[in-house]
Amino acid sequence: MKFMPSQRPFSQFLRTWGAHYSVLKAHYSIPIPQPIFRRKLSTRPTVTNTFQQRQAEYVGETGRIYAVHRTIRYSPLDQNFLAASDDGQKFFLKRLRPEDFKRYQIVNDRLKDSASHFRLLKDVIPSESMIVYEHYCTSFYRTIRRRNRLPLSMVKKILKSLLNLLAELHDRDVVYGVFGLEDILIDLTEDQGQLTLNKVQLAHSINTAYVPRGSNIVGRQVGPRRWRSPEATILGPVNKASDIFSFALLCIFAVYRRVVFNDILVKNHEKSDIQISILERQISYFADRKGLEGFMKYLGKEHPLSPMIELTWDGFHEGNPRKPFSKWDNVHEDFRSLILAMTNFDPSKRITARQALEHKWFEDVEVVQQDDRPEIQESNQDSSLVLR
């Protein structure tokens, strides 16, 4: 079947999600939820009164007793609490589904002896399927919102520390999933106008998983839309290269305060073809013909959206030109080089986290030194992720 070039972007042809949903449902054996958007989701935590959740005490495997002082969020699928131990230390408690609880323990066990920048579990409460973290007062996102602008040197230090963590995760075949601003936890102090970065850590994401070499996360949309790689956007195979693309989007935000897909999400959050709109933007900013061909090969001919990707590419023309990142104005050339290497549309051609650490843009930037080890014992649980 031959597809003729379109004179308009493909998203203008696909105004309903029905067709997109149908091909995905037919292709994957797992249930895919209908994309109904009733409200915008806030990135800020919802703090509720504690009358919905009785004041409680829980005992962790370490023997430490946790007294719940405040409920941050309480719903059937998301229960988060602030608690304090007998010695006054503050902790964050999160109740998970049993299958996710097992997977969290597996990842924690693989990282506990080495990943110093990963917010490892401090304790677990198996009877409640709860995990326990050290409590952090701020995130990278909130810090940026409170300050007009962090010094570029500080931003680089934070990003390189995160990239160093990502390299540690990948060395142990752990895929983070998708980066989010609230996942970056920092301890930043100020004394007489002098900023000191004491700690940088990455929160344990529900998408984080141990993925053996040669395998991928499949049949699952991983993480928030605004930080996804192209393959994650369309339910393609997700692996370490997907982390690299997501990290590049985070870098663009950190340096230029620009969320690449934010306007699409704000204006179209109730529209059914939002995924196609995001893919179109990804192609416009980061694809070239060679990269797109590699991406199609990576997905495989059997992927149901392959024809749509070709049509989206053909929809760009003189009246609707692409806006490649390679031609953006006011971008430092070293930073441009780094982002282009991390966002190659062909996942097999993206640089690794270790290679990115050696990039010129990170020259002479120190990584925050820290040591944060968990106190819980190793788990022997099995992973429940779908791998291929």
Automatic annotation (TrEMBL):
<dbReference type="GO" id="GO:0005524">
    <property type="term" value="F:ATP binding"/>
</dbReference>
<dbReference type="GO" id="GO:0005634">
    <property type="term" value="C:nucleus"/>
</dbReference>
<dbReference type="GO" id="GO:0044773">
    <property type="term" value="P:mitotic DNA damage checkpoint signaling"/>
</dbReference>
<dbReference type="InterPro" id="IPR011009">
    <property type="entry name" value="Kinase-like_dom_sf"/>
</dbReference>
<dbReference type="GO" id="GO:0004674">
    <property type="term" value="F:protein serine/threonine kinase activity"/>
</dbReference>
<protein>
    <recommendedName>
        <fullName>Protein kinase domain-containing protein</fullName>
    </recommendedName>
</protein>
<feature type="domain" description="Protein kinase">
    <location>
        <begin position="51"/>
        <end position="362"/>
    </location>
</feature>
<dbReference type="InterPro" id="IPR000719">
    <property type="entry name" value="Prot_kinase_dom"/>
</dbReference>
<dbReference type="Pfam" id="PF00069">
    <property type="entry name" value="Pkinase"/>
</dbReference>
